[in-house]
Structure of Fe2OG dioxygenase domain-containing protein:
Amino acid sequence: MQTSTTSKLLVSDIASSVDRVPSSYIRQISDRPNISDVDIFGDSIPLIDLQELYGPSRANIIHQFAHACSSYSFFQIKNHGVPEKTIERMMTVAREFFHQPESERVKHYSADTKKTTRLSTSFNVGSEKVSNWRDFLRLHCLPIEDFINEWPSHPVSFREITAEYATSVRALVLILLEAISESLGLEKDRVSNTLGKHGQHMALNYYPPCPQPDLTFGLPGHKDPNLITVLLQDEVSGLQVFKDGKWIAVHPIPNTFIVNMGDQMQVISNDKYKSVLHRAVVNSDKERISIPTFYCPSFDAVVGPQQELINEEEDSPAIYRSFTYAEYYEKFWDRALATESCIDTFKISKT
Ligand code: OGA
Ligand code: NI
């Protein structure tokens, strides 16, 4: 018997009952994850070991940050200080969340991008034309006590484990922000000081197995709107990063995080560290879970290029006007992913 897919809110509840991708997920031929565009075994993104960051070789590691941020905008980190157990518990509870019955999951469903806790599907069901093979739970998590009571209460350990994970990843982010700030030649607390009260959001991305993975994306090419993203992924590949005209596949390494620059870093650094296109592809036999932490300014923070990185005489004028993160964030969600870059609308026009 063919079950109806049209009444389903989430792709998880469609995936298991179809042997073809429904037409709303099928992309035009020119816009598919063409395997010949992808470098699967070649270049990879840098791996930075944070073990010695507070030792005598700090300068060397800061140099590695400068290289990774300016050449790739993406890197992996090991010896990052987030306990293995915390990571494992987070991944397990995320999987348990998405394996709950549909009736339990849909309680959290909302298409309203302004909601601080919500389960949704694809990217932005309100603005996009083609759907993506992804469900996601989005959470705000700073300060935790303002949001924890909105988070799912099932699985029963969800709130406790997620709070522990968010706290631990935040401590790591603060270390990364100092290193990135120094690598730009700025005081180590400068980047952190531009973020107002700071913001931290998380997504739990769930990509079910897909019967025709070459017709659709988990997430199409996009740039993250926030400052930096710290991504945890399970052992299934899917992430690809755009570099020198090619997509590079980033294969998971256990107990590492992937860090990437977002639009706010590009603005603050006045284009020294660019926000970079990346995407997620799906596959036909394994579900995939990824858990990005999006670190960002608080909504009231005013963001703009840092004075030291602007030099009118040497031909590096300010490229962006200042704005509040609230203004940026609203624009980001208002436009469909991957069409037009949000950051361009904040550029100072040359006269
Ligand atoms: C994102 C993202 C990549 C992945 O959620 O913004 O880029 O591998 N995710 O899931
Ligand atoms: Ni992203």
About this structure: Residues 158-183 form the longest helix (26 residues).
